[in-house]
User: Fold this.
Amino acid sequence: MSETVFKETVLELKNLNVGYVSKKPILENINLEIEKGEIVAFVGPSGAGKTTLIKTIASIIPQISGEICILGECCADCLPSGNIGYIPQRLGLVNNKTVIENVIFGKFHKMNFLDVFLSNPNEKIIKEAMDILESLEMKEKANEQVKFLSGGERKRVAVARTLLQKPKIILADEFLGELDDETSISVGFKMFNYVKKNGSSIIFIDHNPARAMGVSDKIFKVCEKKVVKLDKKEQNVEVAR
Assistant:
């Protein structure tokens, strides 16, 4: 007799409309569920609303209508601290601060830089940050200012900052974009391994359907005001385009 597998829903969108003007939603009537440990990709053409949707889930942009439920809690602005890790397309790093400072700042994202370092982060947090940087091959750059890093290195810093927060849900906007194949595999492996190891979930935007198909448990296409889950046949069609 097979065992019953109980799935835990960490994110649910119910009849969600998103956009910047209430009378003109960019995306309409979104209904989807993300379960614990899932890797989920949003694909679709530029300008379709993928970033707007990610920002709405992250509570950066208020939804027009509908519900966003995080870990079973449904409301407009009740995201429990530490449960959401967000990697914006522009990364949100502070250029004149060092790599290690940027990474540790993610642990105390509600404080400013001065307050963080006046609070004297303990050795455990610093070691955790350095271990993550080492796994991303960035340990030797720990004391270098971010403004001197390459684009790929900056993305690894943003990933490290998010992983140090130990979020339950990671929202990543093009975090593998503009990376060469070797670097995207390395950065992606670290992020996706964290998700599976810690029972977290990740939603990431990717303009490369083949890459998304290779790593994702679910793929949703964002297009023409809709968010539609793709089956395997539809995924293959997207890759072939």
Observations:
- The CA atoms of residues 41 and 219 lie 5 Å apart.
- Strands lie at 9-18, 27-35, 39-43, 65-70, 73-74, 84-87, 169-173, 201-205, 218-223, 226-229.
